[in-house]
Amino acid sequence: MKKFTNSDYAIIYKECSNKTNDETWVEVATRLNSLLGYSYEEAAYRKLWQNFSRMHNALKAAENTAVATRILSVSDTHVPFELPIETLSAYKGRVDILQLNGDICDCQAISKFNKVYRVSPMEEIIKARKYVIDMIEYLQPKKVVVTYGNHDLRFQNYIAKNLDNEMAELMPRTSLELIFVDGFFHYDKREGTKSWYTPIKELFPAIEIDYTDNWWTQIGDTIFAHPSAFSSGVLKTAEKAMYFFRNEGMQFLELVMAHTHRVGEYYIGNTRIIEQGAFSDVSKNNYNNGQLYNSQKEGFVYLCQDINGKTIREKTELVALN
């Protein structure tokens, strides 16, 4: 008896897929023999369908464990204390989504902490904009997702404190809105010049730039958050954030959290919580020196998800830098 051809297999797969529960394999074999001009027993078609099914399931399983989205989450750059972009050299060309998880700007000059020198807000915003542009050009992600942090909100708090309400309404909530969405002029009174800085959204037309205007965002099964709350216990801030999102009815299995300048992870049930560290030189950004707080840690997260947005945990990297 001659062997099946490739076109035969296509017909067999289609007819077997259409088999109803009421139909017997003898009836399927009779129909296929009539279509193909063969005289095979029902067992031949039944075994062939079983092989098709095993192959389909194997391909489906492989698809579900294959990496579909690679996310690099960097937080707490605290410009002007940022780390060199080259620190991320191992991920160059390997990032689908660059997630900036808040505190891009330090807003050092308008903070409440004592300081021995000041970097002007305008100088800091210009430098932060250039730093983000350089990072995008270096990593070449397909998408950038930005959340703000408590330091980014210093911009709004300072304006609200020092300007009339009517003037405050002219200004954005965070410096990140100027950098990513609105753009801004720099009026140099000393030099008598005016310079325009185009918003980053307009600089990269081929890259989707999503400024969320929020302190958290969700990508797939993972929440990325930069709360303003802080707990001194190890990973307690992340734990508190996890319960907050659970109480809000959010469905997630991973929580990547900025703000604490600590690096660590653990599981609560089937949920993994991660504190991702700071992508800044913490030796220069130490407002609490001498207060016996735990030392700050530098780090970031590289997270991989499958086609369904489920995190592939064995392919996730929590990188500690110090």
List key phrases describing it:
single chain; 322 residues; alpha/beta; Purple Acid Phosphatase, chain A, domain 2; 2 domains; six-stranded mixed beta sheet; five-stranded mixed beta sheet; 13 strands; elongated
What does this structure look like?
- It is a single chain.
- The chain has helices at residues 6-17, 25-36, 42-65, 121-139, 154-162, 165-168, 175-182, 200-203, 236-247, and strands at 69-74, 97-101, 143-147, 184-188, 193-197, 208-211, 216-219, 222-225, 254-257, 263-268, 271-276, 299-305, 317-320.
- With 322 residues, the chain is α/β, with parallel strands linked by helices.
- The protein folds into two domains: 6-65; 69-320, 4-Layer Sandwich (Purple Acid Phosphatase, chain A, domain 2).
- The strands form three sheets. A six-stranded mixed sheet has the order 6-3-2-1-12-13, with helices on one face. Strands 7-8-9-11-10 form a five-stranded mixed sheet, with helices on one face.
- The longest helix is centred in the N-terminal third of the chain and has 24 residues, at 42-65.
- The mean pLDDT is 87.
